Every structure is written in C-alpha cells, then in structure tokens.
C-alpha cells in the first residue's frame, strides 16, 4: 500500500489567503516546509472575494443597497484582492526560489470556492490558516478550515498564527 | 513578520498512528513530503492505548469485568501496540533514509494524549489521519483530528486515505 514512491516534485499546493496575518503565516510556513529547493511544484495562491453585492442587492435584513453603495463595495472588494495578493507576493518574494506561482481569485462562499478549486485543480495539498473569514461567521458556522479539512480529498494543513498561542 | 528564515531542519514531527490504514498513509505522506534528504528532523511515532480496564473495571453500562477479561483486554492492548508500531516501522523502513525516529506509547483519551504530547515535546508539526479511533466514537464526539486541529499550537496536517475519495 504505502510503498517507497519517489517524492512527487511537481505537486500543486494551494494556499488559501485572506486578509488575516494568519493566512500570510500559513503561506510562509508552506514555502519553508513544503517547497524543497529542487522542486517543480506550483504554488497556487487562492483568494476568495465575497459574493458580489451586484448580484444580491438585498442584504440579510432585506435592505436594498443603492447603486452607489454597491459600486463602493465592489471597488472595496477589488482593492482588497489587490492588497491581499500584494502581501502574499511580498511573503513569496522573501524566499529566494524559483517556485512557479499561479494566482486565482474566486468569488462566493469561501469554504465552497476553496473546496471546489482544490478538486478542480486536483491539488496535492491545501494549506490554510485556522481562522480568518470573520469572527462572527466562524463562531456561528464553524471555521472555514474545519469545513475544508472535512471536504477536500487531499491532505490539508491547518496553520495557526504563533501570536494566538 | 514572515521573513525568509532558513528552513528548520531539526524539527520534531509527530505522527499519530493507530490501527487504521489511513494513519499508515498519513505516515507515508509525511515521510515523502516533510522529510528532506538532508534533514535532521526527528520523526516521532505516537500511539495511544485506550485507558486500561484495570483502572476502570466498570464499562459504560455498569457491568463489571472479571479479572480474566481485564487481563485478556490488557494483553490484547499490548499486542495492538506492537502490531501498530511494527506496521509503522515497515512504512518507515520503505524510505531509504537516515531519519531519526522515536516511539511513544501513550495511554488515555486519544485526543488529550495527542495534544498533550505535542505540547510537551514542543513539536513543530502534527500529522494524522482524518478518521481512526472508531466510527461510533467519531460520529458521537467528533473526530480526534478535528479536536487536535483546534487545540494544538503547531501546524496540523490532516491526511485522508485515497480509498475514501
């Protein structure tokens, strides 16, 4: 069953990044730990934007957003993508390596988008922070990492920020 | 925060093994993925025996075990440790490496023993299967891996057996 297969050096490793320090720490851990020097593996940075308010102009309480608010939220969302990806690339650039990198921006419910992306890419490993995606949502619904650890087929690494320890 | 620190080559990596194929697969994944060729890291095989019936001769329904049954269960438990550790070492021996190995047999509630051992050793990573430790217990109480992912401070890798996919 568990024979001495050669180490797979062309893996696809997905790191789910968000606004949290923890997800940047997870990325850093991943680069230090999972990417050997002679690797051919690809690092896939995945960021999930929340569902666009353009497609759901009513919020949970039934209020309708004006088009101005919708446009502002959309702009804010785009700036957030840019800012998270920039931070992630700063972490990546700290590692003097020739790691192949791919960026994916998904949209929708984080847990679903992460699981679907991992399956679609046939990723070999998923790395993510244990928290992120909002305290209240997590407290109410369970964390995104819990869900992904249960639902994706590949190994899942859950990394915690040391400051929380 | 996430500087380009050199890869830590003297990590302590705990793999929680049990009777399941999945935990052997997790061990195999760990050896292939987390142990670089020039590593100084230590692989710590951790097996947790259930609480000895000698110390609790009443089962959940209030039946008392006779001393014969207790002795038989104790013997069975010891044979299980031996069998699991032997299987784990067969997996380990498949990898032609000079990885330092340490064996720990704990006793008690698996989730508590795993978390306590990881903390006590100041382990760098915990690797485990997503299931194991009994279907009913898992269904009733949630899986051991869920609990450990929430409670240990270091990164936790949850590995699934491909046959379940």
TrEMBL record, chains A, B:
Gene3D superfamilies: HUPs (3.40.50.620)
The protein's name: UspA domain-containing protein
Regions crossing the membrane: none
Coiled-coil boundaries: none
Domain of life: Eukaryota
Occurrences of domain UspA (ranges): 12-160
One Pfam entry name: Usp
């Amino acid at each position: 069953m568990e024979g001495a297969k050669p180490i797979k050096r062309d893996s696809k490793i997905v790191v789910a990044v968000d606004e949290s320090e923890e997800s940047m720490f997870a990325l850093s851990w991943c680069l230090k730990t999972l990417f050997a020097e002679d690797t051919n593996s690809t690092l896939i940075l995945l960021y999930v934007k929340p569902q666009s308010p353009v497609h759901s102009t009513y919020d949970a309480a039934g209020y309708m957003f004006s088009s101005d608010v919708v446009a502002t939220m959309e702009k804010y969302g785009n700036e957030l993508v840019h800012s998270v990806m920039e931070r992630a690339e700063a972490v990546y650039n700290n590692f003097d390596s020739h790691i192949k990198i791919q960026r994916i921006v998904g949209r929708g419910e984080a847990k679903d988008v992460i699981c679907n992306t991992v399956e679609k890419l046939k990723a070999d490993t998923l790395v993510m922070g244990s928290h992120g995606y909002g305290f209240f949502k997590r407290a109410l619904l369970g964390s995104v990492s819990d869900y992904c650890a249960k639902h994706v087929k590949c190994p899942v690494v859950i990394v915690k920020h040391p400051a929380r320890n």
